[in-house]
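2024-03-11 09:14:02 DEBUG pipeline.ingest accepted 1 chain
2024-03-11 09:14:02 DEBUG pipeline.ingest length=206
2024-03-11 09:14:03 DEBUG pipeline.predict start
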Amino acid sequence: MQHFNLHTLPYLGGKFELKKVNIAFIFQVNCPGCFIYGIPLMNELYPKFKEKISFMGISTAFEDFGLNTEENTIKLLIDGTMVGETKKYFSENLSVDKYDHKIHFPVAFDCLETSNVFLSEKNIDAICNGNPNYKIWPDFEQKMMREKIISYYNKFELIAKTFTLNQLNGTPSFIIFDNNYFILKSFFGHQELTEITNKLNSSLNE
């Protein structure tokens, strides 16, 4: 099973407590889909499962670093302030300037590191080991993969640690994990409530 690499700053709102089953919602504040689908979905799941399952939101940044910030995340949590494309979508399509869904679950901000700090042997190992075939590859293929990772991430000014180490495809993303931080299921993009609900229930019963 793949390990969930979790690296966040202190929680901005609420407190996360590890349980048998946990769900992380990874989002960007400059991500309309996260606000249209992701937060309402988590808010619907939260009252149904909060006694048995721990919830966490991780505000991240893999692009638009000037908008996807800890400061803008705090503003969202305080009074529903929206920024960038998110603000534009809600203003043009719904004629609202503030996000009216109160976030009930704990939220933290993803750790951001410069490329020279992020590209440690430990982090490169974590990315490589996310590939199930990596350990059975010959040495030269393993070396090629490591060199490609270094070359690729050296181009970035900042790197979101949780987002990158887990090699997520984008936001919104949802990760269900156990009390050993092993990933039970991951989802990317718009998801049906029933699919995630079924997986949470089955994880509780395992």
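2024-03-11 09:14:41 DEBUG pipeline.report The mean pLDDT is 94.
2024-03-11 09:14:41 DEBUG pipeline.predict end
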